[in-house]
Amino acid sequence: MRSFGGQLKQLSFWAENAAPIGLVVLVIVFAILSPTFLTLGNIKAMLVAAAILVILAIGQSFVITTGGIDLSISATMTLGAVGFGLAYTAGLGFWLSAVVAILTGLLIGLINGLLIATGKVTDFIATLGTLSVATGLALIVSNGKPITVTSVELLTLTSGSVWIFGYPIILAAILGVLAWFFMFRTRFGLHVQAVGGNEDSARANGISSTRIRMAVYLISAGLAGVAAILLVARVGAAEPAINTQYLLNSIAAVVLGGVSLTGGKAKIVGPIIGALLLTALTNGLTLLGVSQFYQPLAVGLVVVLAALLTRFQKK
Amino acid sequence: MRSFGGQLKQLSFWAENAAPIGLVVLVIVFAILSPTFLTLGNIKAMLVAAAILVILAIGQSFVITTGGIDLSISATMTLGAVGFGLAYTAGLGFWLSAVVAILTGLLIGLINGLLIATGKVTDFIATLGTLSVATGLALIVSNGKPITVTSVELLTLTSGSVWIFGYPIILAAILGVLAWFFMFRTRFGLHVQAVGGNEDSARANGISSTRIRMAVYLISAGLAGVAAILLVARVGAAEPAINTQYLLNSIAAVVLGGVSLTGGKAKIVGPIIGALLLTALTNGLTLLGVSQFYQPLAVGLVVVLAALLTRFQKK
Amino acid sequence: GSGSDGSGSSNVAAVIKGLDNPFFQAMQSGIQDTADADGVSVTIQAAADIGDTTGQADKLTALAGQDFGCFVVNPISGSNLVQALAPIAAAGKPIVNIDQPIDADAAAAANITPATYIGTDNEAAGGKAGDFVVSKVPAGAKVAIIGGIAGDVTSAARVDGFKAAAGDKLDVIQESAADWKREVALTQATDIIAANPDISAFFAANDDMGLGIVKAVENAGLTGKITVVSVDGNKDALESVKAGGLTATVAQYPYAIGELGLQACQVAVAGGDLPKDIESPTALVTSAEADQAISAFPQPFAPFENPLEGLLSK
Amino acid sequence: MIDKYNSRPDIAPFTGSTPATDFILTATDITKSFGGVHALRGASMTMRRGEITALIGDNGAGKSTMVRCLSGIHRPDSGEIVLDGEVVHFESPNAARQQGIETVHQNLALVEDLAVWQNFFLGREKTHGLGPFRTLDRKLMRKTAEEMLQGLAVNVPPVTSKVRRLSGGQRQAVAIARAAGWGSKIVIMDEPTAALGVQETARVENVITTLRDAGVAVLLISHNFDQVMRLSDHVWVMRAGLAVAERRTEETDGDELVALITGAKAA
Amino acid sequence: MIDKYNSRPDIAPFTGSTPATDFILTATDITKSFGGVHALRGASMTMRRGEITALIGDNGAGKSTMVRCLSGIHRPDSGEIVLDGEVVHFESPNAARQQGIETVHQNLALVEDLAVWQNFFLGREKTHGLGPFRTLDRKLMRKTAEEMLQGLAVNVPPVTSKVRRLSGGQRQAVAIARAAGWGSKIVIMDEPTAALGVQETARVENVITTLRDAGVAVLLISHNFDQVMRLSDHVWVMRAGLAVAERRTEETDGDELVALITGAKAA
Ligand SMILES: Nc1ncnc2c1ncn2[C@@H]1O[C@H](COP(=O)(O)OP(=O)(O)OP(=O)(O)O)[C@@H](O)[C@H]1O
Ligand SMILES: Nc1ncnc2c1ncn2[C@@H]1O[C@H](COP(=O)(O)OP(=O)(O)OP(=O)(O)O)[C@@H](O)[C@H]1O
Ligand SMILES: [Mg+2]
Ligand SMILES: [Mg+2]
């Protein structure tokens, strides 16, 4: 206990745990201010709402661990959703359509990978380009119209639950466990961290940084494809609208989770908690009836505060 | 001539000059496809339309030269515009309102500078935070409503011109010349490049990287404030809407202009040409009647191609 | 006034709001289909998205220099196209203003006199929705409003209309912004229902968000217990009204607006005189009218007196 | 004038009394350019079994480039590498390692944010399990890394600490232990003591002679003539992308080496 | 056991026959910590006019930290620096420079993307004009830089080429010329020849003796004992954050220095 108390005094303790601490603080504040916040129903709703962001944050986390960034992640999700919608409308059924969504995502991931890993284009610019390309493609193939999808499986996916855990958050949790496993227990994950930590050293030790970079962009895009299915399930339609908010939030979640944008330090649980934190923040503000105008301000302040905290992390 | 011909064969020649070459290619293609494109009227219109982006690209270029990035630039412009609108409505008149717009911008720049230069927060996250904060503030102070501004000076600003050069582009050109002067002819500019090139070395030589970083975020925000005035003039109102497009385009313009996101290599003319290129692209596509859906695709492809080219730049 | 003293070209240029929204896609179809039917050449351009005020102005400016005889414009805000329209007006080319009215003061300052304005009063549309909700729920019932992007003009007009109609007959407990997006509206409606289980009605500033709210209501198992009303009258929304999801939508017939816009241009180019204002139809569609509305889509289902038919045939 | 020694097959290289089969490695006419920079212009060299071979030369002579060709980081533009009598083409650093060539690079090639044991096994991790769910055998790797480091009797911190926390000397020790610990045929060290103090240098030199005594052929790149004279059995001199001379160490001295490096004396 | 020599004022430091006024620099009881790392724990040292003073010690002994305190990069936690008889407190590297202390850092402190002349004048550019429109006097700076480099007779490329294109030796030359060219009282060089080849090292050593002959006091940090014995007049030995011994170079030898560094011999 003493040593724990001592730890609390260390700034770096707070810095390492900015996301969980922030989440706990938010939960306490909102629980006091709103009687609804901690009801099972609201918790369940929050978790379901967080699922998509959690999945995107996991994907983004792989990319950021290599020192890259995937700005196309939400546009890829949009394109995946449209792919799902078209496939389903064409009569391919739920499972095949889901495969189409993921493959569509992977296509953008492949382009990112080729540009960044093989073409040595800066990640920021390459994914900024594919952000535009994916957005354009989504508009073109859908003709700009939302595609309504009514499927039993999608309905089950959104409404099914085990106690307070809806199927979407269970799916996200499973993906989180898998991501953790691959990141921290397999050669692949170690190599992702090595490439992010020091690309030259990694290559001198026989790691193909090209292959690793390719892989992380595929993972990120593939997860965006999975998120696309949840998105379609959630709203019951595939919409070609751009979801910039998901992009910025996925990056914010990863950074709140304590992952440095310079790469080399992997985290999976942190970004997931970061995603939950951001969702809880919007949820709480809505419950409290905080004006729409004050919401971006609140989100911005939380991000800045967390960033100020994380800078005290130990190297 | 021979040596010039020899240069043309060098990939690095194309890479160094991606923006001007791209601009020339675009102009030729559009001139062939559309009889209107090269009319004086259209050139004038394009130049006026480019002015805001040119100014933002200049600001962004200073930040990127230090190896940073300003994601809050367009939100700052929005807040500046709202500041102008409120000041004007309050009866401060054009000139005082313009000062208010710039001061409002500088306020966000100051926060960015404090966070990044003093607080050592990653640029990406700090400006992502202030992006949200500025957006929120713009909504709050304007109460979410556009503020219509009708002022003789604003009208002169948008409609006045010297031959094919409208006042906005003349203003942008003056700022470009000043920026070039400060970047390449003064100690300050040299220090900006030094901090971006190697912060440790710069500091060992007595340059205060804190002060330089602070300065570039102030410059970027101040220019966003100037751009805000042009925005109000152009739209005839101060609107609290976020202009995400300007953010992404300002970064794309700088990169198209041959500035590396890793910092240390300054360019002013390149980003300006990059901004003109992006404007000409949209203008040409509009003239050709290309569907709205294909436009993001086209922009994305141009950005990716230019990025592929710039990677062959000499180090 | 509207003269045919320009280049005499009968080509029409149209600049509308972002096509990432079915409402404006229908508007585009209305313009295009009418042009095709009447053998008129038309170029349609749209803003990148609902916030792209300067981009829209740039596009109009690009078109202004070309050989068009008439311009149909649907500005994002009251004033964002004024600068771009000034040279068009100066060249004496007719301007047909649809959907979003150009700010009168700004237009006057720039010497712009639109040949006509065609559109629905968004405030009135919101008002229709408000009246409907007032008639559906007990007095003093709790309602929530979900608007588009915070700060958007159309959204604000619809919401203001709704609030005016609600007056003190309804208790507006919350107003939030869902960026015109279905998914965001779903999340917010879910939260609002959680915080206020006794809520009676939602008003959404467009159909997409309305459908998101319907989904939230469905998830909460309160379908039929909570009234959801939105504005637009998109196909999806009409289907939902029929299926008992949305309680009602205030259809604005963007297709008809587009159609009227093109026809007005034809009249103007031919030198005809246009009425100053043409009110395009709006209609409240509840489950009773849903079938009718769907089969007539995208045309109005109720008989509609087109003031331009007579002028056109001249 | 550069004496293009190696391109003149009529002049037999100085091989002393060593029969050709005693060459564990022969590199012949290696060229390597980077854009316009010709880093290697047809360099040849040999290494003998159980000996320490030194490679010296001025800055930019091409020593590190040669090392990178031998260890599979660069692929030579032309030329032949014969290892243990067989012609080899290394497609990757791992290929060279599998053939028994370990390298301590000038920059150490460590990843700061990874633990010592992770760096130790980087690129050739031990795993158990099957297929995509093959997991890292963390226990085995930690144990092995610890044993290897201790076997070299270098004072290092726990293998679970991050390399970032290690001092320069400790890092060098990890890199050298990693290269030395794999029972390889050849260990290449590119300026292993450049930044080290007296004590650390002594330790590293000790490791080098221990390796030789264990029958490993060591290639030592160094600017320190005392060290070269003290440790090596044979010296190759490079100048401007070429190997311009070789000497048995006992038959030369510092002055001659300087003359060879600067070109004051031809081979 | 560390002999905390400098904290015992009862033992007079070894100053030979030099009167106290001949000390151009005296640093007394300097401490400096980084978080938990005590890099300097009360180190003292002196430098004499017109002499080359060597500072030696193992990796991590604190040499570079001491240098950074003397050149204004770090502010000491405690202790006193007396320059030319006056107590000085350097607020910035420029303050130290203005007082006449120039430093060649271990990492050279060059900006690769800037031209040679820009690096030369970095932080103290010449300007003409007034106020915010004061422009760089590019012509003057180019000319001065060229003269200074030539004055040192080092073979360098045009002053307008970027440092990125320079070889390691050329960079070192630029950094040294920069430090040497300002008519300063003291030039500090932190391992100036660590990565240099024979020819480059000879040139740098030449610069160092030229400086001394011009009356400049030079502080030389080096791991190379031969160099220290060859060049320096006086040697300070650091161990674990303390200066533990000093010797006149002519009165000591390599073995004693090693013993002092490792702590095998007390001061
Ligand atoms: N990746 C590369 N790209 C371009 N040039 C290179 C590269 N690697 C080496 N060179 C150039 O090749 C030449 C030989 O370099 P190398 O590193 O092999 O020299 P070295 O003998 O190891 O020198 P040092 O003693 O300074 O380590 C130099 O001119 C160097 O600039
Ligand atoms: N900025 C810093 N932050 C934390 N620790 C530091 C810092 N600078 C130096 N140290 C630590 O202080 C101690 C002394 O370092 P210093 O660089 O002065 O040693 P040195 O004698 O120059 O060694 P070398 O011969 O390797 O250059 C080391 O333990 C080092 O890790
Ligand atoms: Mg080398
Ligand atoms: Mg040092």
Q: How would you characterize this protein structure?
A:
- The complex is a heteropentamer, with two copies of chain A (about 325 residues), one copy of chain C (about 325 residues) and two copies of chain D (about 270 residues).
- Chain A has a single domain (about 15-310), classed as ABC transporter involved in vitamin B12 uptake, BtuC, CATH 1.10.3470.
- Chain A is about 75% helix and about 5% strand.
- Chain A has helices at about 1-10, 10-15, 20-35, 40-65, 75-90, 95-120, 125-140, 150-160, 165-185, 185-195, 200-205, 210-235, 245-255, 270-285, 295-310, and strands at about 145-150, 160, 165, 235-240.
- Chain A is globular and about 55 Å long.
- Chain A starts with a helix and ends in a 5-residue tail after the last helix.
- The model of chain A has no long low-confidence stretch (mean pLDDT about 90).
- With about 325 residues, chain C is α/β, with parallel strands linked by helices.
- The longest helix of chain C has 17 residues, at about 20-40.
- Chain C is elongated and about 60 Å long.
- Chain D has a single domain, classed as 3-Layer(aba) Sandwich (Rossmann fold).
- In chain D, a hairpin with a 6-residue loop joins β7 and β8 (about 135).
- In chain D, α5 (about 170-180) packs parallel to α6 (about 200-215).
- The N and C termini of chain D lie close together (about 10 Å).
- The relative contact order of chain D is 0.18.
- The model of chain D is unreliable at about 1-15 (pLDDT under 50).
- The interface of A and B includes residues 136 and 248 of A.
- The complex binds adenosine-5'-triphosphate (2 copies) and magnesium ion (2 copies).
- One adenosine-5'-triphosphate binds near residues 37 and 63 of chain E.
The residue ranges of chain C in which pLDDT falls below 50 over 5 or more consecutive positions are 1-7
Low-confidence stretches of chain D: 1-16
- Work out the radius of gyration of chain D: 19 Å
- Domain count of chain D: the total is 1
Q: What is the subunit organization of this protein?
A: heteropentamer
Helical segment count of chain C = 12
Strand order of the largest sheet of chain C: 2-1-3-4-5-11
Give the helix/strand class of chain D: alpha/beta
Q: Write down how many β-strands of chain D occur, each being a DSSP E stretch of 2 or more residues.
A: 12
**How much is the average pLDDT of chain C?**
88
Q: In percent terms, what proportion of residues of chain D is strand?
A: 25-35%
Q: What is the CATH topology descriptor of chain D?
A: Rossmann fold
Query: Kindly, what is the distance between the CA atoms of the first and last residues of chain D, rounded to a whole number of angstroms?
Result: 12 Å
Shape of chain C: elongated
Helical content band of chain C: 40-55%
